[in-house]
Amino acid sequence: MSVVKTKKAGAEAGDTVRSNAEDTFRYGADAAQRGFEHAASITREQLDKASQTLFKNYAEISQFGMENVDAFVKSGTIFAKGFEEVSKSWVALTRRSLESGVETAKAVLGARNLRDVVDLQSEFARTSLDTFMSEGTRIGELSVKVANEAFEPIQSRVNQAVEKLLKPMTV
User: Fold this and answer.
1) Which of 28, 53, 68, 156 has the fewest Cβ atoms nearer than 10 Å?
2) Radius of gyration over every alpha carbon of the chain, rounded to an integer in angstroms
């Protein structure tokens, strides 16, 4: 072979190597670009899912907090109304007791003898005790009822909170 043919063959071989190297580099760069874009796409999807879950959980937590506040307001309203009813019952009992005491005092002042005074005082004491026991029991039952009704909205929220805590978290 001649030198010219050898140079030409060497140049062609060099061109082929260079062309193959460029093609390999271009294919490698394209593959790297596709890989990067795929990784970025997956990362973006995961971030979107995480953001959606975070906002969903934030909205649920906010809603749950508002429902808790509503339960406390409802409980307070029930308690206030019940306390008003209990207070009215105590005031009515006290008023009736005072009226009975005034009537008994008038009767004692008009008594003709000591026996009438003792009888009036005994009747007043017995009636007052009976009234106090029956009304006290009724007011006590009313107080328990008010306490249970006032606690019910809060108890309901506590039960829901426990259920949420025991329920597995979803992502």
Assistant:
1) 28
2) 46
Q: What is the DSSP string of 108-137?
A: HHT-SSHHHHHHHHHHHHHHHHHHHHHHHH
Contact 156, 89 (CB under 8 A): no
Domain residue spans in the chain? 3-166
- Residue 141's alpha-carbon distances to 53, 80, 82, 147, in angstroms, are 48, 16, 12, 10
pLDDT tens, residue by residue, 145-158: 998 998 899 898 88
Q: What is the dihedral of CA 78, 84, 89, 90, to 10 degrees?
A: 120
d(CA 131, CA 102): 16
Distance of alpha carbon 69 from alpha carbon 66, whole angstroms:
5
- Contact between 124 and 100 under an 8 Å Cβ cutoff? The reply is yes
pLDDT tens-digit readout, 26-72: 776 676 677 667 766 777 777 777 667 767 777 777 888 888 888 88
Distances (CA, A) of 116 to 65, 113, 134: 67, 6, 27
pTM of the model: 0.57
